[in-house]
């Protein structure tokens, strides 16, 4: 089957379009004919080699972390899906490869596609939806009446997280650029900080939760907007010891992550708040909850552009410019 392949780690390197073997279908797997996939900053970081330490893939490998498509086969022990089902998923981090014509995914990571979405819209959802869910619902346990700051509100995670936080009853602040102010307001943001004109750390205070997806400067300034007992959750690093232990990393790697996160953890402690790093995980049950929210009209996916499969490298270049509103999608079939 045809796929886009990483042959070597290289910053801004092109993926090779070529043939790869058909997926091996294990007992608990569903085989999905991929209709659409979407791009995430994670894809560019993997391609560039930035995540080699925590995601040691064996070269060459197929890139891609989101899928929407049709089940065309199932393993001998699959009970919840059958051929013909329209599904979507974020495959587990050890089994990525959605920039291809087919993929085998563990049924525990799969959910039925929302009936009110096209394949292209559905493909934009899994990774960002699960990230938002695991930060806001699981880690932060965001409750009605609390205040949350979501950085980069017009991005893939941001557009989803704003809507989810509003559904949970929180007051939502977000940072974005001038041209995206109206977009984030339409998604439910109560307070919008135009980072081109304003400094969020000077305008905001007393927040319960911050979801950070940006760099070191933004991360450190985010501590100042939290009230005592507040939670700073970062999806862009630095990784911490708890993450290393959860991931089963060896003692040496745990110490590396302890050092990487030492500065931000120390500053958080001094301010009486907590810092944690979250690397989202595949979860079909949570994705089914997301399906319910989408089908009931609570959340709508935001798609910036759809590229044909043949233009996957062009789509990667477009994503890297950082101008996309919501998600960049690739139509495979």
In short:
It contains twelve helices and 16 strands.
Number of strands: 16
Helix content: 25-40%
CATH class assignment of the largest domain: Alpha Beta
Per the CATH scheme, the topology name of the largest domain is Quinone Oxidoreductase, Chain A, domain 1
CATH architecture of the largest domain: Alpha-Beta Complex
> Mind describing the biggest β-sheet?
7 strands, mixed
Sketch the topology as an H/E string, one letter per element.
Answer: EEEHEEEEEHHEHEHEHEHEHHHEHEHE
Number of helices: 12
* Overall SS class: alpha/beta
Rg on CA atoms, Å: 19 Å
The total domain count is: 2
Could you give the distance between the termini? Answer: 13 Å
The fraction of residues assigned to DSSP E strands is 25-35%
The coarse overall form would be globular
Q: Provide mean pLDDT, rounded.
A: 97
The CATH H-level homologous superfamily of the largest domain: Medium-chain alcohol dehydrogenases, catalytic domain
Query: Which residues form runs of ≥5 with pLDDT under 50?
Result: none
Can you give a write-up of this model?
The protein folds into two domains: 2-125 and 301-331, Quinone Oxidoreductase, Chain A, domain 1; 128-277, Rossmann fold, CATH 3.40.50.720. The protein contains twelve helices and 16 strands. It has helices spanning 41-48, 119-123, 126-139, 156-167, 181-186, 200-203, 216-222, 241-246, 251-260, 262-270, 284-295, 312-320, and strands at residues 2-6, 16-19, 29-39, 61-62, 67-74, 86-89, 102-106, 110-112, 147-150, 171-176, 191-194, 207-212, 226-234, 274-277, 303-308, 327-331. α3 crosses α4. The protein is globular. 49% of the residues are buried. The model has no long low-confidence stretch (mean pLDDT 97).
